[in-house]
Amino acid sequence: MKQLVVETSARSYPVIVGTGLIETELMKQLERLNPSRILVIADSAVQNLYGDKLMRAVSSFPSDVYAVPSGEESKSFQTYYDIQTFALKQGLDRKSLILAFGGGVIGDLAGFVAATYMRGIPFIQLPTTLLAHDSAVGGKVAVNHPEGKNMIGAFYQPEAVIYDLDFLKSLPESELRSGFAEVIKHGLIGNEELYSWLKQEIRNVGRINDSMLQRMILQGISVKAAVVKEDEKESGVRAHLNFGHTLGHAIESGAGYGKISHGDAVAAGMLFAVWLSNRTLGADLPYEEIQSWFRELGFPTEVPSDLDTDLLLGKMMKDKKASSGTITMVLLQSIGECRTQAFEKDRLKSLLEIWRQ
Ligand code: NAD
Ligand code: ZN
Q1: Ligand 1 geometric centre to CA of 106 (Å)
Q2: Cβ of residue 144 lying under 6 Å from some atom of ligand 1
Q3: Cβ(100) to ligand 1 under 6 A?
Q4: Are residues 166 and 178 in the same domain?
Q5: Based on the domain organization, do 242 and 149 belong to the same domain?
Q6: Residue bearing the CA closest to ligand 1, atom 40
Q7: Are both 54 and 161 inside the same structural domain?
Q8: Along the chain (357 residues), what's the average pLDDT of each consecutive run of 10 residues?
Q9: How many domains is the chain partitioned into structurally?
């Protein structure tokens, strides 16, 4: 078991990563918080697999479970409202505690419930996907609105993040790969040593063992925690976390959500950002090396050919970080060192066309 501390203005909280933590570390946190009631908000697939184990671990407190169907559709205002109704009917009060038991969907949803139920009650993240190393830390919680993803939300920090690796054993390889793209992102933007180790050791996501998982989760989280500490509310460097995501989100949305995984889209987006860094910042990044590593890992190394460049640019202009005719890209001066750079739409379009050829 290993631990690090995330510091924010609201509170400092531990992130604990290891195996068998539900019986030990979760218990310690529950004893510290001594909640009047516990509400487990769970992904139904995760609850089916591990719900009995979790409920045994929390059985010394009055507890309820609310399981939501797996998938992004559950990050909705309706589900949020239904959970609030359930919580009120079960008699949760201001001393009650929420446990978010699942991947990023559950963390965002349960976190937003916790942030707003009776003006805010404590919650603990129990992440069960690799991608959740990104989402469980930093305090962004939200539900989606038909007008846009994550549009209704808050900044609200958990009491603790307990990453029990035993739960990740059942994660499908495609989900592991999607989360792995974000680990690579954290290496590229903030930790050269993490990047080099990943590139050296991980050539097949199917062969990632517990000790590798522990290391990549902790180091990825520490990059994110450092960025969040410097810029909690996203007015400056927090934008660096968007590396690979400007084009990545455009690919995801252009292809139609669910057609291409978030990690695959971000991998292609990161590759373009690396190429663009060399081309426009005069950086000397090992583009070909990264490209062939991504190929080995099974990530796409180009944008699907049926996605039109104009369509992608249109999507990139709609990005939250775009303003007045320019698109801001997060680039790398070197591995571990980010720069943001604004591009005129037409210039970025011609660069994207050159890269795609
Ligand atoms: P997810 O929560 O939908 O989980 C992915 C799939 O894996 C689901 O089908 C789920 O049922 C299944 N699953 C989860 N754990 C499992 C396990 N242990 N064994 C077997 N199956 C399991 O998706 P995700 O990729 O974890 O998270 C994506 C969400 O995270 C998006 O909504 C995104 O907006 C959000 N996100 C938030 C932040 C943030 O800062 N708050 C950052 C990045 C992403
Ligand atoms: Zn992402």
Answers
A1: 7
A2: no
A3: no
A4: no
A5: no
A6: 135
A7: yes
A8: 95 97 97 98 98 98 98 97 98 98 98 98 98 97 92 97 97 96 98 97 94 98 95 89 96 90 97 98 97 97 95 88 82 97 96 97
A9: 2
